[in-house]
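fold-stage: in
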Amino acid sequence: MSDIGSEEFEEDEGINLGEYEGERNENEERHGFGKATLPNGDTYEGHYANGKRHGNGTYRFKNGAKYVGEYVKGKKHGQGTFWYPDGSRYEGGWVEDRRNGHGIYTYPNGDMYDGDWYEHQRHGQGIYTYSSTGTKYTGSWVHGKRDGMGELIHSNHRFVGNFADDNLQGSGKYRFDIGCEQHGEFVLEEQIQEGETEEDESLTVLTAKWKCSSLTEIEPAKVG
């Protein structure tokens, strides 16, 4: 669904703006604090400047979604929280109606991402927590995918290394709570995936395989 909201225009353009109750400027534009019910059924309660949503406000979509936060010239811009109809929620920075800057997104299944955003996507540094297992990924993101150096933290071990296009790839190490580290790298190997019928063509699938190069003990931390 779109989270932009319905546009509002000046009355002299001859467009039905719906109902409005609030302050206006000398040009009769919506200006100051007001409440509006838009033609599509959405509602807005908050501040305006020269006919545009501007400042803090609450926008309620007729499908149940809601945005509470800052607007600049009619667009979500600054800090704000958006509740989506599927139960997910985003709290953080916005730039011209898009998630940008630092923000926290809670997904319908309970997963959570806390980190940098760019143009609606996870991009930069961030932590993703998987609710079903408690596993966490902390590290670099590029256009919504794990990419670059990162750390995958499980209940009794962790992996530190390189990710590419959301997959483990390249050198890294596993660190186990029992007191050892396994060094190596993930290498892409080709695997042939046969078709379900004789007419289906076989597909070549790249799968990341872990190649261990060494195993070392973890020295206990010195006290004092």
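fold-stage: in (second)
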Amino acid sequence: MNNHSQKNILLGCLSAFSCEVLFGLSYLFTKEAASQASAMALLGWRFALALAVMLVMWAFGLISLNLKKKGLGQAILLGLFSPVLYFVGETFGIKSTTASESGVFLATIPVVTLLMAILVLKDKPTKGQMMGISLTVLGVLISVFAVGVQASFSFFGYAMLLLAVLSYAFYCVLVEKSQAFSGVELTFVMILVGFCVFSTLAIIEGLTAGKLAELWALPLQQSSFGMAVLYQGIACSVLAFFLSNYAISQLGVNRTASFIGVSTAVAILSGVLLLGESFTFIQILGVLLIMLGVYISNRG
């Protein structure tokens, strides 16, 4: 392997890891905000801010956007899978099921993504990648079961979680197939699609409930909601989406998928260190297995 390839793999791994760290830390900002407003309000504001940030960066020449390329329809489809369908499935799935059930479903994302890469991209994983992803999934499951197991038997919730899992897998595959666009361009399309859908839904929700004025004022009136919008809009949407797209372009779907469990580990650790939540031996084991799985998947 030449130095250029090694550098690309290293940058890809750093991007994938950083992306999952940013997603994992979002737990700190959204925990309280979720009790102050609806999920659609938070998503609507999140993507409105993210789009505003990207347009300002483009206006000042900080980023370059050229969307007049073949395959724009595929890029828009990518945006429909993630963030739109993924967040719809995740939001309603988590709301309709127990924490343990949603955790188990979402833990399967690396495996389903790997299978999708095999079927669509004909990208066969190495033994190390299969072993590493298996350990990562096991670590996430252990972390989920450490806080108890409950069942909701909500078939709607299960369907929504399945939608989230499949949508994320399709997103990963489409990123690798959308080579005509740069990571910044794909990120812009994803954010634009997310803005169009979630802002519209948030406005409809506000009109239906007669609380449209409250929707506009939320970030200013509720400081924790405003902080959540800032973090999710800039860190999780603009930066993390770009890092994810870049990682997939450099590492491929299988290697990038192995990092997904890192967000679970970061969420647990940040809750313990910054919110004073409990941390059991079983959770420690889960976190260690996640990190070992990531190492094994990317050591070669």
